[in-house]
Structures are given as C-alpha cells and as structure tokens.
Amino acid sequence: MPIDLDKFKPAYDKWVEESMPDYLAGNVKEVIKKYPLIVSGDVPWTAYSGSPSEQTFAIVTSGGFYLKDRQPPFDTVSIHGDPSFREIPRTVRPDELGIAHAHYDHSLAEQDINVIFPIQRFIELERENIVGRVADTHYSFSYVNDAVSLVAETVPKLISRVKAAKVDVLFMVPV
Amino acid sequence: MGLIQRLAEEAGICTISMGNDAERMAKIKPPRALHVKFARGSMLGEPGHVKRQRRIILDALAALKTIHVPGTIQELPYQWKRPDPN
C-alpha cells in the first residue's frame, strides 16, 4: 500500500483539530505544510509499453471542474475537502464547466481550460494520430484532504471506471 | 493527486503527472512526473499558448518511453512568458 490508513487516520484527525484555526483564517499554506502525508518508500510502478498512437488516454485533473447543468459542485467549505470526482465527457464545451475549488486562482483556467485540463490539445493530437484515442470520459477532482475516503472509496471507483473504459494511460494534472 | 497516481500505478494503470513544487513532489513521490516552473492553477503554462501546451503533452508522451526508473521527475525548461527553447 502506498498509504497506511491505520497510521494515517489518527495523524489526520489530529491535523484536522490543530489546523482548523489556520484553515478558517485562510492560511492554506500553513495547513498544507502540516499535513500528515504518509507514503511508503517504495514507488508503485506500472511499466509503460507500446506506442501512444495505439493507446487510449484519459485526463485526471484536480481543478474542481463539474458540469454546471447536471452535476453538483464540490464541497469547498469543509477542511476535509471533497474526496469525490466528476466525470467530464470529451465533448464538453468550456462554458459547460464550473469550477468548485477554493484554493487556487481560477482566472487562468477560466481563460483557457487547457492550462489544467488539456482536453482540446489531446483531441488535436488524436486527429493527427499522435495519440490513438482520447477516452470518452475524463475525471476531475477538487481540493481534498480526506485521504481515508479517497483511498478506501473514491480511487477504487475511479480505477474500476478507468479499466472498464480500457484506458492505457492517465495524464494527471494537479492545480 | 500524487496519492491517486500512486494508487493507479499500483492497480496496473500507467500514469504520468505534472507538478510545480519540487519539494512537495519529493515528499509525495509520484511514479512518473514532469516538473514545470509555472504557477499554481496553470500547469501547462499561459492561457491560449496552444503551441506550448501541445509541446508539454508531447514531452509527456516522450517521457512515457524514456522514464524507466520509478519515481523519476523530469524537469521541463519552459518559462512563463518567455519563448520556448529550441
């Protein structure tokens, strides 16, 4: 496991309690600095093989994107953040996307979503046969601290959907 | 994002990620990543800079083939509002 939840959970609960004043005061840098990240020394690894021109790509962003007309926005208030994700179709128009993420400046992404969700660039590369296929569905997370829910619930769901969609490579863009 | 990436790799899905904070990346240890010098919220550079965005994705595709050591973070040379190197 890249994260030991039994060790992480008490450290996380302590962090929530201690970080709440900074969080409420908007000192996000302080809050992030104290976050009890627990990753093992080993780096999980899936070797790459094949050629991009024969493979399927999906984007995972943490930009807080959601479809304004049919998906709920992410929780932007809780110190736990929001561990859920939204599925974004490849056909999405930028004006259909809302951004629910309280901890970065949205102005650049609002000018051009490709700076953190480069869907249009990927579709161009698909047209040129540089990538084989751009998946029908892409994935957006938002700000999340609750790694317990992420590890136990959300990411397993993401992985099963990615596998069902026969995605070969995830291109992952944080904010 | 680093944690999601690690779990995906562990589950057999190949990934490549981006980051702009070398110190944080060293802590999170993403399996395969590109490091850029851009600000938070704009990992692929300036809005509307199609050529640069495309180039970064091409760099990522190339890195899939050239990164063989788990935990490798490849530095990209691009700088905000400065021309791309050749």
Describe this entry's structure for a reader.
The complex is a heterodimer of chains A (175) and B (86). Chain A has 175 residues and is an alpha/beta fold. Helix content of chain A is 33%, strand content 15%. Chain A has helices spanning 5-24, 28-33, 107-111, 119-127, 147-164, and strands spanning 56-61, 65-67, 86-89, 97-99, 133-134, 137-140, 169-173. In chain A, the strands form 2 sheets. In chain A, strands 1, 3, 5, 6 and 7 form a 5-stranded mixed β-sheet that branches. In chain A, strands 2-4 form a two-stranded antiparallel ribbon. Chain B is an alpha/beta fold. Chain B has a 3-stranded parallel β-sheet. In chain B, helix 2 links the parallel strand 1 (14-19) and strand 2. The N and C termini of chain B lie far apart (31 Å). At the A-B interface, helix 3, helix 4, helix 5 and strand 7 of A face helix 1, strand 1 and helix 3 of B. Strand 7 (169-173) of chain A pairs parallel with strand 1 of chain B, so a sheet runs across the interface.
